[in-house]
């Protein structure tokens, strides 16, 4: 067998953690909520998904995570997700958060992370304090700046930290694609800044999609933006590109935080 030459060498493998959505459609009783969406997100990107109420953002994420029946194709790391049940999609390294953090309020931060890590230990073992933390749990505590709060009950955490704990629970499961639904809703300004920095750290080697309405947050932290409108992709590009798009300006009339020229905004 001869060694492959440059021209006959096999193409490099597809990006191992890229999300590729093609012609995605979700219909509810004849109403098309997602209408032929194509979307590509690569690791290292930090994609913000925006659009007016009812644009189809949550439904798109529901379709990717198996919660809404859809047609078309959703591939992650080369694998087709459509048609798989929710738990199998999760096992492929896909995780999401919802607008309200879903943590176990009566358990400590550490116990929440332990449970998420599913270390296969009994409840009694989980509730016992251990001397050595699993590496993934220690890393998630560090990444989410929760190390000093590890023994606090999750229910007593400030709103922002609860959201970070939920993100930490995805990190310990080694989720490679994170879909976050309005992660900074209800957060203070410092919490939003810290969340933006956290998302940048996470997106360095994972694929992150953020549904967001907070335009100031988007302008500070988005690496790229997809604008949905009436179930379709209206515009896509950098923050500056979508802001300059007249179609986006029309849809976002009255949203100066998105469309005002740089330096002139509130
Ligand atoms: N289970 C459902 N049954 C019927 N219609 C639905 C269902 N889920 C969503 N829809 C409709 O699909 C459209 C898209 O909803 P979706 O929640 O995806 O929008 P969104 O962009 O996330 O909006 P928001 O920013 O308000 O959360 C809306 O018109 C909504 O009413």
UniProtKB/TrEMBL annotation:
SMART domains: AAA. Keywords: ATP-binding, Nucleotide-binding, Transport. InterPro entries: AAA+_ATPase, ABC_AA/LPS_Transport, ABC_transporter-like_ATP-bd, ABC_transptr_urea_ATP-bd_UrtD, BCA_ABC_TP_C, P-loop_NTPase. The keyword Transport applies. NCBIfam families: urea_trans_UrtD. One of its GO terms (molecular function) is ATP binding. The keyword Protease does not apply. Residues 19-255 form the ABC transporter domain. This is Urea transport system ATP-binding protein. One of its GO terms (cellular component) is plasma membrane.
